[in-house]
Specification:
With 248 residues, the chain is α/β, with parallel strands linked by helices. It has 9 helices and 7 strands, in the order βαβαβαβαβααβαααβ. The longest helix has 29 residues. The model has no long low-confidence stretch (mean pLDDT 97). It binds NADP nicotinamide-adenine-dinucleotide phosphate. NADP nicotinamide-adenine-dinucleotide phosphate binds next to helix 1, strand 2 and helix 7.
């Protein structure tokens, strides 16, 4: 049931971190992989080769998810190359942390455009292809911070909360077309986004995680595999927390 052979997945921001873990897991399940990045040209080329070596079709696209017209062109190119898009994973995301008192308009806009507007643009761009196919699974990678809020991350938390509202609305609009839309809210996952945090902050986080460890990209990827596959055929509009029990 978790076999994705013959399906095509488009994953934004998969040159490293959680997106890379998602691409590897979906490829292992047989899916063809189109993925994006913005600056990691060499890493992306090496990853494209790594994925292709597993026997599936894979291609990396340098495409800024925050730019609406670039997204339209990306989806056009992917459909031309792969023939279809069955699974969309809106994973690309950034942080520009600051306390509200010091947060400037640029920090707000960059985070909103990269994390939230991107999901709107990608979803809009893949809709027609999925409607034609009368099936599709859209998975938005949000964050537990979008549920709880976080001091110093007003922009990031607002963008991630926005993704949850977008997920529910898309699930309602497209459910009759057999297109499902769900969100995954990771907790603290070991990637470049979190590696800059000091040891004391990590230890403090782990104290509050019932499973007593930091998450791995595979922990998120396994949940994506479930939501991408027919094993979750009757699940839509939901947010699943992958956080070791930190947020309930
Ligand atoms: P990461 O290690 O910083 O990787 C980010 C990825 O997104 C990279 O592949 C990067 O490409 C790409 N990217 C950044 N801006 C982009 C843009 N404008 N267009 C296209 N791609 C872009 O981040 P991560 O920790 O894996 O996080 C992935 C997602 O999970 C994000 O949405 C994040 O908010 C969410 N999340 C992470 C955690 C965590 O603890 N790590 C927790 C909750 C939620 P380049 O390599 O080219 O820069």
């Amino acid at each position: 049931m978790m076999n994705l052979k013959g399906k095509t997945a488009l994953i934004t921001g998969a040159s490293r971190g959680i997106g890379k873990g998602i691409a590897l897991t979906l490829a292992k399940a047989g899916a063809n992989i189109a993925f994006t990045y913005v600056s990691s040209v060499e890493k992306a080329a090496a990853f494209e080769a790594e994925l292709t070596a597993t026997g599936i079709k894979a291609k990396g696209y340098q495409s800024n998810a925050a730019q609406f017209t670039a997204v339209e062109k990306l989806v056009e190119d992917v459909v031309k190359e792969f023939g279809t898009i069955d699974i969309l994973v809106n994973n690309a995301g950034i942080t520009r942390d600051n306390l509200m008192l010091r947060m400037n308009e640029q920090q707000w806009d960059e985070v909103m455009d990269t994390n939230l507007k991107s999901a709107f643009a990608l979803t809009k761009a893949v809709m027609r292809t999925m409607m034609k196919a009368k099936s599709g699974s859209i998975i938005n990678i949000t964050s537990v911070v979008g549920i709880t809020g976080n001091a110093g991350q007003a922009n990031y938390a607002a963008s991630k909360a926005g993704m949850i509202g977008l997920t529910k609305s898309v699930a309602k609009e497209l459910g009759s077309r057999n297109i499902r839309c769900n969100a995954i809210a990771p907790g603290f996952i070991e990637t470049e986004m979190t590696e800059t945090l000091g040891d004391d902050i990590r230890a403090e986080w782990v104290k509050n995680i019932p499973l007593k460890r930091i998450g791995r990209p595979e922990d998120v990827a396994n949940c994506v595999l479930f939501l991408a596959s027919d094993a979750s055929a009757y699940i839509s509009g939901q947010t699943i927390n992958v956080c070791g029990g930190m947020v309930m």
